Structures are given as C-alpha cells and as structure tokens.
Amino acid sequence: MAKTRTRGPGRTYSRVVPGVSGRVLVVDDNKVIRQLIKVNLELEGFEVVTANDGAECLDIVHRVCPDAITLDVVMPRLDGFGAAAQLRADPRTRDVPVAIVSACTQQEVEAGIAAGVDAFLAKPFEPTELVRVVRRLIERKDRADRSDRGDRSDRSDGRKGTPAGRGRGGPLQ
Q1: Contact, 84 vs 100, CB < 8 A?
Q2: Helix residue ranges per DSSP H, 47-154
Q3: Average model confidence (pLDDT) across the chain
C-alpha cells in the first residue's frame, strides 16, 4: 500500500511507490499543474516530492535528494531561473538534472541555458513527453554517476550539460 507523508511546514508531499524508478522534485506555484505533473510521474513509477516555489525547492532539496527536478519559471519568492542557478552553484546539487516546464519562449530557453538547465518542456505538454524527458534526464545522470565511479559498462554520451528536449516534442539530445 502506498503511503503519503507530509514534510515540514510547507506542505511538501512524497509518496512511496514500490519499484520506484527515481525521485523527482516538482516545483510549481500552480497547485493544479503541480498535481498533474505529480500524478503522471507517479503513474510511471517515479517517487514525487513537490514544492510551491524556488525558495521552498532550495529549502528541501538536500533532505529529499532528488534524481531530477522540474521547475516552473514564474513563481513567487524565487523563480525557476534563480533556483536553477543556485542549484548549479551548490556542489551538492550541481549535477542534479533540471528541466524547465514553462512556456519555453526563446528568451526563457536562453536564460535557462545560462542558468544551467538541462531540458525544456513547453506548457501545455503531453504527459508522455513529460515522462520521457524526466526518464532521459535520470538515465543520463545514472550513466554519469556510473562513469564517475569508474564503471565502464555504460559510458556517458559526452553530452552532459547539453539541453535536452527544447520545447514541446523537441528531441532529447
């Protein structure tokens, strides 16, 4: 039976799912979008933790140790670009893959690349595309982690840090 627990005062949720394929921190100030992303990822076997904005993301990221993070851009207190830049500046989180889930205008893509974002997914998005982007980011991180440990069975594709999925339906690189 799955279990729901509340973390801290910020009403951040995590559901433990058997056979989990990774933990994702979903950050969006819109409760409906946050829930939509959460449900779609959980249906695919991901454990999902949520945060309401970039500041809450930074408050909980070290406790939840996510395998990937999705960030909205426009949020109160700290926007997605600010959160991404701070995640990249912190040695403990600089290698956690980050995907922007937003309108993904050219300006947002450029600002996201400058902040160190790994992938972009345009709203409105197809749930299957969301799952594909998150899965690819986690797989890329797993390959890089194995490579860092000296595991030669699966080498990184050499494109670490290359933005994946530019906009809706955009190819992952």
Answers
A1: yes
A2: 54-64, 80-89, 106-115, 127-148
A3: 80
**Nearest alpha-carbon partner for 101 in 124, 78, 84:** 124
- Residue whose entry in the numeric block shows the structure tokens 């400058």: 114
Side-chain-facing half-sphere of 14: CA atoms under 13 Å: 20
Largest CA distance in the chain: 44
pTM over 0.85: no
Q: Are 145 and 106 in contact (CB under 8 A)?
A: no
Burial 76-95 (b: 16+ CB within 10 A, else e): eebbbbbbbbbbbeeeebee
pLDDT in tens, 40-63: 999 999 999 999 999 999 999 999
Q: Which pair of tokens denotes residue 1?
A: 């039976």
Amino acid at position 160, single letter: K
